[in-house]
Amino acid sequence: MPGPSRLRTRSIVAALLTFVGALLVGVAFDRWYGESLMERERERVRAYVAPYAGAIEGVFNRHVGRLAGLVAFVDAQPSVSSMHAAFPTIAEGLRAAAPGLRALQLNRAGRIVATFPMADSARLLGYDLLSDPRPEIRGDVRRAMDSDHMVISGPSALLQGGVGLILRQRVSNVRAGFPDLVTMVLDLDPLFEEADGAAVPKSVRTVLLDRRGQALRGDLGDVTEPTMTPVRIGDGDWTVLASPVGGWGAAVADDLRPTRAASVLITLLLTSLAFGVIGRQEVLRDAVDDRTHDLARANDELRRKGEERLQLEERLLHSQKMEAVGTLAGGIAHDFNNLLTAIVGFTQLSEQQVSALQNAFAGSAESDRLTELRQDLTEILKAADRASLLTAQLLTFSRRQTVTPSRVNMNGTVHDIQRMLRRLIGEQVTLVTEACEQPLPVMADSGQLAQVVVNLVVNARDALPNGGVIRVTTRALDIETSSDAPWPGLPVGQWVLLSVQDDGMGMPPDVVARMWEPFFTTKQLGDGTGLGLSTVHGIVTQAGGHVYCDSGVGRGTTVTIALPRLAHTFEAVTEPALIAARADGEVILVVEDEAGLRRLVSEILRRKGYQVRVAQDGTDALEQLSAGLAPALVLTDVVMPRMGGRELAEAITERGWQLPVLFMSGYQAGEELPDDEEHAFIGKPFTPEALVTRVRNVLVRS
């Protein structure tokens, strides 16, 4: 006869086997029954959504009928003048019957020739849709012009403001001078409000997706395993996603609850004896396991938050460091520009004196020595120009550089910074430049264009840790038809191409897709900010250009920028002519704390016939003005000890003295200095001719 221990063991085993068997049967039944209930619930949700989808289709089709009526109106007009005369009346009638109809337009050859309401006509008439910066708009307009079917754009941003749909239909009988397209602009919200009469019950959540899968109404996070009901919209489908509030499980929970309760009751009845013996132990073990799991999860959460805080601290330190470096760079550039102003100014004054001496000693041995001296002075000016480029780069880094688009030769930009590029990439990397023989003129800021080249070359260098070759090429590209474009989205026209190619490791597609995003970088924290390529993209786009990348793992990377080519070539650069017009003896007060600059500016102005008074800072200048000095112009530096130029100008204004003020500063922008009839600005470094011209212009203007 088995002992109590063995009997207890058998009882437990039997109870467990019974429990497992009953549980398996109950789970299988619950799953089958739950799936049946959820399928029934899906059919119910589809039935709720179908009228709503049909209502959206009906509202849209009514608008399509109005568009067809506009096409018929254009076809029926006997002349262009009669069409334009009757168009506002027809458009007003169509729009009055449709609250969601935003605007009606007539187009010819891609341009808007008529629009209603008339309030938008000043901004929209003549607008060339084929030159719209959005490629989807240009593509849809071309499709509508080439197709007999209606073409729908959007939802997208509208020229009139807001977001809506744009319906375009080609006119069936295109005649000379008549429109070839009619356009209808629809607001989305009124369209949806009109369809809300067939709204689904509040127990069902819906999300409306457009043909691109983007949510037009609702939040994708509100639906789980949704049903999908198509909505026929023109030549494509929208989709209504729907699921019960709280999910499918909650929707069938009430129906499952009785069967689950019965299964549990049966299982408990069959295993009550066994669970009566071991139930307390199981409950205790489960409680311990749950508590252990909670503690482990809390520990993981604390560790994760600690890591996040450490990362945030590192990013903050890096950001503060970059801000400090930017401030330091801007200050260095400011002081360096003061030095450059003195170097350039005194050198050009010396060059003018040497030129005069050459004319006086023409044909003598002294003339040859003066020629050599003038060549030396020219080299000093060239070095100063290169130093000025360096300060411009520092100001760009510190975001204090003025953006001034001008005619720039792409070949010249690459040539001018070759030496700097070779220093940047190091000895392990070979730099090869292949410039087009013809000039490649573009309209861009020369400093920003150089920054684009530098950023691309530095990025290519970082892809060559073991050395390699970087190839920089420039060429012209003429695109006569869209099929000739080497890249999608590059419009017809004349372009200048700059390509930077490396034979490095290349990038996978997912990295290429995100390479232009700000702050996206594959480098270690501290090695890169993720702003280099996004800056390139922004500069090129602002200049009306395009950026393309061809890369693959193991085959290197080629980045190409395309900028519009100007129609005419560059004119030869000549020496700037000296200012011929002399002064009429006006008194100018020069305020500058740097003694060398003060003497330079004074000498330049005296040689042009001005009477000069000097002050070493704003306080000194204010004392002279208060003592009765009445100059025709105050020429002042901005940053000075005791009182700066800005404070001096404010003091002059407060005292009611009508004196024009010309500011000088090594910063190129960011100082928020006024520029009106009584205030003007000239950036350092400047040439004597530039200073005299600016002074004369301010005096004439005031």
From TrEMBL:
EC number: 2.7.13.3
Compartments, record wording: Membrane
Enzymatic reactions: ATP + protein L-histidine = ADP + protein N-phospho-L-histidine
Keywords from the named record: Membrane, Phosphoprotein, Transmembrane, Transmembrane helix
GO molecular function: phosphorelay sensor kinase activity
Gene3D superfamilies: 1.10.287.130, 3.40.50.2300, CHASE domain, Histidine kinase-like ATPase, C-terminal domain
Modified residue annotations for 4-aspartylphosphate: D637
SMART domains: CHASE, HATPase_c, HisKA, REC
GO CC annotations, alphabetized: membrane
Span of domain Response regulatory: 587-699
Classification via SUPFAM superfamilies: ATPase domain of HSP90 chaperone/DNA topoisomerase II/histidine kinase, CheY-like, Homodimeric domain of signal transducing histidine kinase
Location of the CHASE domain: 112-171
Record flagged with keyword Transmembrane helix: yes
UniProt domain Histidine kinase: residue ranges: 331-567
Family matches, as Pfam families: HATPase_c (PF02518), HisKA (PF00512), Response_reg (PF00072)
PANTHER family named in the record: SENSOR HISTIDINE KINASE, TWO-COMPONENT SENSOR PPRA
Protein name: histidine kinase
